[in-house]
Amino acid sequence: MIDLADPGIYSNGIPQDVFADLRGRQGLHRNEGPDQFWSVTRHGDLIDVSRDTTTFSSEVGHIQIYDIDPDALDARASMIDLDPPIHTVLRRLVSSAFTPRHVQDYREAIRARVVDCLDRFEADGGGDWVHAVAAPVPIGVICDLMGVPEEDHEYMIELSDHLVAGTSSEPLSPDAYGNTTELRLLPFNSPAAHGISEYARKLGEERRARPTGDLMSKLIAAEVDGERLTDSQFTNFFRLMIFAGNETTRSAMAHLAVHVAEHPDQFDRVRTDPTLLETAAEEVIRYSSPILYFRRTVTADTELAGTPLAAGDKIVMWYAAANFDRSVFVDPLRFDVGRPKQPPNVAFGGGGAHFCLGASLARLELELLIEEIVARNLRFDLPSPPKFVDSNFVNGIEHLEVRLK
Ligand code: HEM
Known about the structure:
Blueprint: H1 16-24, E1 29-30, E2 38-40, H2 43-50, E3 56-57, H3 70-76, H4 86-92, H5 100-103, H6 107-123, E4 126-128, H7 129-134, H8 136-146, H9 153-163, H10 191-209, H11 215-221, E5 223-224, E6 227-228, H12 231-244, H13 247-262, H14 264-272, H15 277-288, E7 293-298, E8 302-304, E9 307-309, E10 314-318, H16 319-322, H17 359-375, E11 380-381, E12 387-388, E13 397-399, E14 401-404
Parallel strand pairs: 2-10
Antiparallel strand pairs: 1-2, 3-7, 4-14, 5-6, 7-10, 8-9, 11-14, 12-13
The structure holds protoporphyrin IX containing FE.
């Protein structure tokens, strides 16, 4: 029996054999565990689902495997859980800040964060890479964009960690962070979601009184059809940005350190040929596939890969499976910093309306980190294997001890 909802399957990273088996089967795979859903594991099928928001909705059901009540769906809805047209309206409020051209404006600020973290890491002779580099860089970058002051960045990491089951060592009591909301109404059923909303509300009030040009100032003043965002639209927006901009890039940066340790020759190639920086970052992202899956719900009877689907069926797109589809990627288990950019990997989604808003930003962050690592000619040794996040949703690394050689 293969139950892809079981987090245990991912405790050592992506279960390559399981996914290879499923990709080779006819049609879609019906999950064999207590959760009933169809698994999409091939690259082409995943792209078809991603690009058809009418048949495969993000709004009709939950975007994670487990179902939640309609009032809980409403309470947590942000652009990622909504379909066009409202999805498009919300996304447009911030999309100009994330275009490939615009993110170049953040280049030097990102580089400064990378340099600072690596300087300290080198001075310490190594340590927990996640704590020292992979976590602080992305949270620093997204907090800068949103306008969260530096002294609160650690708090954002803490709250965001609590959202992913198992990322935090401390289980939370239901009333943590002053929460009084029923847990089922909160994203990830976590009181930390309440903490994030409260923080957003406070910061929003400050920015309403004194706008500073950051995204929070923009969002608090934004209007949809002549109306300001509702309280929950505003706080859910903030939570999505903090979570999405943080956990994902952190995972990719954590996996990068594993590759630096295991494939020093590949990074020597980048050092001698810096034109490989872009494809090297892309390969790290493909290979890490930080988001394992997102779910859609079928809105009308249809068919995919020869499998008949009924309205209401759950479709789970396994990005981590499609990124190793050998009908698309030559020798997919080989880590190759020169792998061509086409066909694109699907770590940021298979295209269409929900394609990752932060893709250009994440790529730039990765490129700058790789550039600094190779410029310093850093060599890593891993005294113990990575400790993975206990999750069926993110391919995260919670702890990674790195020694500098
Ligand atoms: C390596 C890093 C990252 C990965 C692997 C990643 C992955 C993804 C994936 C798979 C999706 C869903 C795509 C779909 O449903 O078609 C997504 C959506 C999203 N991502 Fe990222 N992401 C990363 C970094 C970021 C960053 C840095 C931000 C910062 C703003 C961000 C913000 C978002 C947002 C707001 C959405 C929802 C977009 C929508 O629904 O229209 N992501 N991301």
